[in-house]
Amino acid sequence: MTITITAFERSPDGGKGLARDTRVRWALEEAGLPYEVRLVSFRAMKEAAHLALHPFGQIPTYEEGDLALFETGSIVLHIAERQQGLFPADANARARAITWMFAALNTVELPILELVTVKLAEGDRPWKAERLPLVEDRVRVRLNQLAARLGDRDWLDGGFSAGDLLMVSVLLRLRPSGLLNEFPSLAAYVARGEARPAYQRAFAAQLAINAAPLPAG
């Protein structure tokens, strides 16, 4: 059965890999699974057809036969469970990889998203000057903890896994802020993720969509 995912018709980041469909594309590329992409506009995301797939009107979604999924963590978990390459064979190591998936999306990404909100959505608010350093410090706490756990290893727990895929994807959001550069081991960790051929293919596919002219009408 054909796998179809949804992605922005035009990504807010211009195709720099920060839209969440990149995470799903990367997982599919790592797993060697072919897929198709259905592009949706911001207007279409709020219409009934898309809301039937994603009740919160976001992307990406994943469709395969009768199965429809939303939320990147759930989609990446589904891909990792059905195909080799994203989970280790050992049951305990697999459980730890899943734990890192949750940690990436819940413990690490939340303060990073708060930082993005302060910089962009609240950039013109009078409280930004006081709030920004506080949020940056919360991010640094998480990065210090993550760097301590990573140590001098290439990946979080043995070989590359879905946990690393999501963690690298989350950390990429920090690049515009410069905070990632304060933690050389994490910057190198992200660079290793970006260097993977599967990531390169996923990134190129998303960038090509955003570089192409929009269809007339």
User: How many extended strands?
Assistant: 4
Quaternary structure state of the chains depicted: single chain
Beta-strand percentage range: 5-15%
**SS content category:** alpha+beta
Distance between the termini: 32 Å
Number of helices: 8
Bin the helical content: 40-55%
Biggest sheet overview: 4 strands, mixed
H/E order of the elements?
EHEHEEHHHHHH
Low confidence ranges? none
SSE blueprint:
Blueprint: E1 3-8, H1 21-31, E2 36-40, H2 48-51, E3 61-64, E4 67-70, H3 72-82, H4 91-121, H5 128-150, H6 162-171, H7 184-195, H8 197-211
Parallel strand pairs: 1-2
Antiparallel strand pairs: 1-3, 3-4
Describe this structure in words.
- By secondary structure, this protein is α+β, with helices and mostly antiparallel strands.
- The protein contains eight helices and four strands, in the order βαβαββαααααα.
- β3 and β4 (67-70) form a beta hairpin.
- It starts with a strand and ends in a 6-residue tail after the last helix.
Summarize the structure.
The mean pLDDT is 91. With 217 residues, the chain is α+β, with helices and mostly antiparallel strands.
Question: What labels describe this entry?
Answer:
4 strands; 217 residues; alpha+beta; four-stranded mixed sheet
